[in-house]
Batch of 2 targets.
Target 1
Amino acid sequence: MNISNVIRGVKQMAPLLRKELLEAWRDRRALVMAVCFSLMFPAALAGGTIFMIKKQSEDVTRVALLGAERAPLIQQRLRSPNLEVSSLDSGSPRELLAGDYDIVLEFGEDFAQRYQAFRAPPLYLYINSSDTGSGRAQRDIQERLGALQQLVVTQRLAARGVAPRLLAPWRIETRDVSTPSSRGALILATVPGLLIMTLFVACLATAVDTSAGERERLSLEPLLLQPMAGWQIITAKTIAVASLGWLGSLLAIATLLLLMPVMPLTELGIQRATTTGGVIAMGLIMLPLALLVAVLQILLALRSQSFKDAQTQLSIFQIAPLVVLMALDIAQIKLSDSWQLLPLVGHQQWLKGLLVGGAVSPVWMIAGSLVTLGLVLAAVMVGARALRREGLLSAS
Amino acid sequence: MIRVDKICKSFEGQQVLHNLSFDVPDGRITALLGANGAGKTSCLRIVCGLLQADSGRVLVGDADPASDPMAVRRQLGVVGDREGLYERLTVREYLSVFARMQGLSGAALQEALQAVREELELDALWDRRTKGFSQGERMKVSLARALVHRPRHLILDEPTRGLDVLAVRLLRKTLLRLRAAGTTILFSSHVMPEVAELSDRVLVMAAGKIVGAGTPEQLATETGCTNLEDSFVALAYGQRPAVAQTQGEPA
């Protein structure tokens, strides 16, 4: 097949492409599915981030002190921005925990006497471990009490002429060396996977409809009787399906970028570093992937026994690659550059880099996209052969 | 002319066509008459190039669907059995897509669309999407699709199935007009009155073979029957009317 034949073939394909595009874009169910998922995931991500920050900033451990008059120093020093301390005259720890308090601290009746006599009076810490917030409350109060205890020990040793540093052979100081971009990458690690999933979801309904659906409605046969080659039929269907998938991913990218200003990314240590060029690159790299996903979904749907069977198979098909991508991400496997030639893996790496303004090699992006397009061509040829299968006509 | 020469076809080891041979002359209506499962649809699909024969040869005009399917598809119009339409397209869009796929464009395209619109009385349906069309309306649109590029050969598989009286009359009128215009028509059916009324020649098919061929009158003479139904039963199942055999008169 030489170039002029291909160009003539593409021109002949125009009416078929028009038919496929009209059918795809008039399918309200497919369109709603594509648009909804594309808007839903960035909205969910933005909502989740806002909620997380709000929760972090608003979370205060409420502490009830019983018998606090016996330990005025602790009562005074316990107060901090994340601890809301209330002194109560009486109350049952169980009832207080069931009510408004996260933790109850009770001082025994002989607390003051034992404290003054250096006899380590007990402090009773009541928690409800079935409460999801109890771990955080216990950690907060123990940290605070630990610091206070250290202060008292230091004062007592100093009063007796002992250097406190003798009891502290070393001192731990934590330094966070993460950069805004790398923290951003961690938090936004799910976004590339979700963008790729958007593509799968947005393509699904149209892919099934144009292949298994046409076969079941007995409208594939008239198409096979036209003077069109199999590759033209598969290519037209692939472009129509991919157009919806690509729209979905572009819509998701646009929504994500629009929502970024309202997301508290700075509080999470994320610097907005996505550039206009990066956004255009994201859109462009999704196009070959949209074509690949579309043609593979069509091939799979053509092999299925029925419309429902195709839906089931494609639902599984859309999850499988994402599980692999997420597993690679969670395992934090360091992949060599050549892995970028592999569709999906390469796309995940590029999207992740482009989203946080990291370095992405244009050479690898172009090479990987060409490999993806090569696979699209191979799949179209396989699809053209699939159209010659006699089993395709069995529905009638 | 359509020529079928000694074709055989099996599906999963079961032979459905046995050395099937027949000719469909130009400008005539030929009926392929057979019971369900006789192999009519398989035969027509091989003629159209949708299926490949295991052996034998088919010629549509001077093109072989096995070796040059594109040439065959350009000169064929096919109306399949219970075929579906594209429900999100209007009739005009639907016919336009198929006419363009057959290579029509510009003024020729508009003329072709206008012609089928008038001939098949499609005015009321023209700008409606095909979803929800009745069986008769679907048949009209399918027939228009098969005819829009003015094919030399027309193949119809059980075209009257599920149609009401008016739709059958329109179909009959259209087929007779096409015959007068020189179109070669091959249709399959198991409805005897329809075959008797429309066809110039009848091919009786049973168990994947042609067991009788000729005009309805010739078949009646050959079998000693008075009507096509009896002739068909006699040829397909070997059951000659008892009265006719004993008295020596047509049943």
Target 2
Amino acid sequence: MDLKQKVESLSIIETKALKALDSEKPKTMEEIAQKSELPIDSVRRAIEWLKEKELAKIEEEKKETIVLTAIGKSSLRKALPERLFVEALQQMKGKGSLEDVFKKSQLNRPEFNVAMGLAKRNAWISIQGGKKTVLEFTGLEKEFLEGNYPLEKTMKKIKEALELNKEEKKALQEALKRGLAEKVIDVEKKALLTADGKKAIALLETVKKRAYNVYGAVPKIFIGKKHPYVQFLDNARAKLLELGFKEMKSPLITQEFYNFDALFQPQGHPARQWTDTYQLKQPKTGRLPDKKIVERVKAAHENGWKTGSKGWDYKWSEDIARKVMPAAHGTAHSARQLAKGVKIPGKYFSIARCYRPDVVDASHLIEFNQMEGIIIGKDFSFKHLLGMLKEFAVEFGQTKETKFLPDYYPFTEPSVQLSVKHPKLGWIELGGAGIFRPELTQPLGVKEPVLAWGIGIDRLAMCALNIKDIRQLFSQDLTWLRNTKQVVE
Amino acid sequence: MPNVEASKRDLQKLIGKKLDAKQLEEAIEFAKGEIELVEGDRIVIDEKDTNRPDLLSAEGIAREIRARIGIEKGLPKYKVRKSNVSVIVDKNMAKIRPYIAAAVIKNVKINEEMLVQIINSQEKVCGTFGRKRKEAAVGIYDWSKLKQPMHYRAYDPRVKKFIPLEYRIEMDLEEILLEHPKGKEFKHLLEGFAKFPIFEDSKKVVASMPPIINSQLTGKVAMSTKEFLVEVTGHSQETVNTALNVMVSAFGERGFDIYSVKIKYPNKTIVTPDFTPGKITVEVDEIKKISGLELSTKQIVELLKRARYDVTIKGKKLLCKYPAYRPDILHPVDVAEDAIISYGYNKIEPEPIRISTKGSELKTKKFKRACENVCVGLGLQGVLTFTMTSKEKQAEMIGFDSKKEQFVEIENPVSEKYTVFRKNVYPELLEFLGKNKHAQFPQKIFEIGKTLELDSKAETGTIEKNKLCIVFSGKGADFNVSKGVLDAIADNVGFKYSLKENKTQSGLESGKSAEIAIEGKKGFLGELSKKTMQNFGLDQQTAVLEIEI
């Protein structure tokens, strides 16, 4: 292959890498990547190809560097044995028996022996024999205690890769001997243009590239797109809009009044304790709605009000209802909407961010989305509730095969669980529903039956995005996001 | 939702009819349970109704099923024999934990399965219906070790001593609260009282310290125990009676003999257990209206008998009596649900909803979508981060003083990573970039999301803002890029803005950043300062744009 043919056969990546090379100064792979704007892995491959085509050559440069060993690093973090030794003796007021110093220093025996040897060599201590060996400071230890110790300084410099002076080079020998530091050899690859390579660059300008390597890889193009989970939720929203639902406001922070009290959840209920819901340090409280509504909710809790209920028979506190909290479920927003006023007949929904103090794992998040809503109409019965769920099974479960199970929610009666045979997941619990209790709706000013429903949206999202771990809904992996297909479900 | 563990053999025996796997599954659905696991003879039932303490044991589930599948009908009957046993309540309990109910059970024959059932259902009844022992705490004792009359009275915590369950040494009441695992778990229930409750016999032998712990010597039942004393304490006679009924009726299901106990309060005496059924009147039409089913009065009565009600027809009204172990019937809708469950949810023909309404989304969503379209057109990748985060990220790492900055803050965080709500989106996106340094550059990302700030005038004490945040990272990601993007959004979404020198938003390079004002809303743009880049571990040039939309 002559040079011209070679140039014609170059891929785009090779061309870019070639142009980033120099004939005089060898360049590192990182430098080439920066100049060519290619990913580093592409650069490495391209340089190998260019080498085979004899347009580039690779130089390997060996570099000797000195680094701290693991022992060196840990001694630097804590202290060298000799320092622990001297400090032990210092705590004993400068004099003590060998065994006492040993215990106090908390060193092991070999470390202790090294440290004592050093202390003696540096004349920091004198040793008196006899029945018991006694160690005593000489006065020369002061400089060391003040922190003036070449070995430690040298090790710090090695850690920061700084130049060593003459005295420190001496200390380096000791560090190497004691295994606190070691020499390592790095091999760095640098690339340089060959003579042909230089000519090839010149040719690039003149040769009209007739032959692309049509089989070669081209740089990847990443398009702009929505986050896949956001896209999924938008699709769900579009389906609800088609079904005639109106979107409700879904604030992140709500009064306990809407999260619990208006839903007829008694104030002493365990679900309201702080292991089950988040509470706020600040702000603490918010405002309650119209006094009439508050009075009626209070009466519903205490004695059932005019709803025909017994109520919960306890003293209801406005102060508890006034507290604010991160919304624990989307039903809080349905309560807010009912209190504000609804059209009859009417359909409402929310896709709301909700919060619960769980431990995060493959199936739990502390922050997640709930999709739910209400349908209000004069003559609605349990039969209509099932009719509504049938429709949801088709829209969201992609199936007509359903099963209804008795269920329990504190705010609905009757309650029902919707199970469907999902084409991909098999039988799953798709959602829950029920007719809001009269103790909930009547105090909020609604006389007609309110059908309430919720769909387990996160489970469906995981299926649509083909993921097993719920944490991936909030994936922090850019490559995964870029490579995820458009969500159509 | 509580799990009920049982032996399949035991459950079948209690139901009294052989059911195959499918029949058993359907039967359990009648009792609002779902089979979670079958493993040999062991069966775990997920009980969904947290307001039905009577369904938290194999005995209770079997009793419900027997009626629903037609083996029995109407109220279950339990014979209560009279005894001379009494509990004397001291007047010093009035302000601490005033109410108690008790019963004696004789002719007890239990095996290991039953013992497990008793202990589990006791725990579950206290946990759910008893509101974690606050409203009802159950104690079961070996009656042969106690001498009547029993006393329920309060003692000075330093004076009274006994050996708590699973311990070997005597401890005073204060020590128990501080050291025993159950003491630590439930000590808040006795907070603020100078004296603590003690349940003891006529010879001052301690049976328990309600609602904390039983005595190791008398408050432990075993397979060899032949006679039980059961007691429930709490803050309402009705609640403790119901809890006692739940426990005692389960023993009745096993065929044990139930004996009553006199409770002698300072000013009156009552007898427990009290199985007088609850009463509620329901209109026939109301059940028809709620269910949507065309049912005759006779049919409805039959359905309710299968839900263990006794019913008397009075014109268009039904006078219903329901078992004394059910605390969940507050309103005729509760009776209606029972009738529908008896009918069978899956036998009902669903009725399509035929109302005509127009769907519409919130106004903010429309504007959000317009911004999103521009971002996608600009080739940006959408990302999604949490609204809960840490002060460190939202203040320190972008150069604000975390002591001075005020946040909407969590009182009970589970992790240090999530303690406040974010005020700005961009620190979250910078963290995202820091985790993606190996991915191909340039990196261009955006998020549209909510942020929260304190506002004492607002309804919830907080003000919510929708923010659009864009971050560019890589060669050439400079001030001009961020401003160019702002122009592109302004032109395409249709708003005007003005810029001024950045004085308030830290974390950005001064002289290469600006504050934005958009029709009363704020924002900022520009290059990150070196320090911010270091804090998030970024090595490529990075520019941000964040505006309220």
